[in-house]
Amino acid sequence: MSFDLRFTKGQGTGNDFVLFSDAEGENELTPTQIAAVCDRRFGVGADGVIRAVRSANLDAGASALAEDPQAAWFMDYWNADGTVSEMCGNGIRVFAKYLLDQGFAELHAGASIAIGTRAGVRRVTRTKGGFEADLGRWRLAGGEPLVRAKQLPVARPGLGIDVGNPHVVVALADDEELDGLDLAYQPILDPVPQAGANVEFVVPADPLVEEGVGRIRMRVHERGSGETLSCGTGAVASALAVRHWAGASAPSDWRVQVPGGVLGVRMFAADDGEHVALSGPAELVFDGVLTLA
Ligand SMILES: N[C@@H](CCC[C@H](N)C(=O)O)C(=O)O
Fold first, then answer.
1. Best of 19, 47, 88 to mutate for ligand 1, by most ligand atoms within 8 A of CB?
2. Known EC number(s) (predicted)?
3. Catalytic residue from among 18, 80, 231, 282
4. When you count CB atoms within 10 A of the terminal residue's CB, does the N or C end of the chain come out lower?
5. Is the separation of the CB atoms in 96 and 282 below 8 Å?
6. Does 88 sit in the ligand 1 pocket, CB within 6 Å?
């Protein structure tokens, strides 16, 4: 039986999403339906789908509420191929904008919205140019797999970083090498991480640090979505990796240039250890109705 899906299309630095609300948690889409929605020729077209569910009406939402009773809404994130992800850095800003636009949440000056995700509760605040999400603690995880990519002459070592979801960051020599990559092909990791990984390729700007801010360029091949114009958690992982390689004198504020725009990354001390925050724009582009089989 077919049904009509009322959705909003949103994007953050060109990473685009189809958002819909399902407050009661009764309308989970199947992986096949997600892939159909994200299809750029036969569907709406998007890098992922975000379902807004009241945390109280979802098992994963119950643990979000236990962590923070203010996390009334849960960001149920799905990649374009119909697989789930724990976190989406661009998506959470667009989701915050969607909650405000729908009247599901309010954001007073100086306050934050608590959002449930599979990686835990994350807080989003408003900034001059959009929103900032505190993505919490990060960790080195996944070792240093060798990465092969189309048009890269030899395999390069990557660095595994978990920011709620898994990433492998690879440093390239220069802009020419970065621009020459063909990310229509999925990079091959050795060893292959069990849960897969988003793979980011980075080059430092010249100079690397300007007025106390580190600057890098990044391209990404996302797990479950392929090459995208931007990946927020990927930008965060890239800045963390470059800081790790650069050593103790490296800054804690970073500006990451991605094909779809610029993202800010800020590392700061919190009560439970070092946190990392991601800032950037969030736009709602249009509303629509899609009939799904
Ligand atoms: N584009 C997102 C990340 C989306 C999930 C990712 N593909 C995964 O499978 O972990 C971002 O902005 O962080």
1. 88
2. 5.1.1.7
3. 231
4. N
5. yes
6. yes
Confidence (pTM): 0.97
Q: Where are the strands (E) in the chain, listed by range?
A: 3-12, 15-21, 48-54, 73-79, 113-117, 120-126, 131-137, 139-140, 146-148, 156-162, 166-171, 188-190, 198-210, 213-222, 226-228, 253-258, 261-270, 273-280, 283-292
Residue 94 CA to ligand 1 center (angstroms) comes to 13
Sign for the CA dihedral angle at 234, 237, 239, 241 comes to: negative
Tell me if the domain spanning 3-136+281-292 has CATH number 3.30.70.20: no
Determine whether the shortest distance from the Cβ of 89 to ligand 1 is under 6 A: yes
Instruction: Give the distance (Å) from ligand 1 centre to CA of residue 229.
Output: 12
The C-alpha torsion from 186 through 187 and 191 to 194, rounded to 10°, is -40
Q: Note whether 57 and 64 are within 8 A (CB).
A: no
Q: Fold for 139-278, please state it.
A: Diaminopimelate Epimerase; Chain A, domain 1 (3.10.310)
For the chain, where do the domains classified as CATH 3.10.310.10 start and end?
Answer: 3-136+281-292, 139-278
Centroid of chain to Cα 114:
17
Q: Are 203 and 239 in contact (CB under 8 A)?
A: no
pLDDT along the chain (293 residues), means of 10: 94 98 97 98 98 97 97 98 98 98 95 98 96 98 97 96 98 97 98 97 96 98 98 98 94 98 98 97 98 92
Dist CA 49 CA 78 (whole Å): 5
Instruction: State yes or no: ipTM above 0.95.
Output: yes
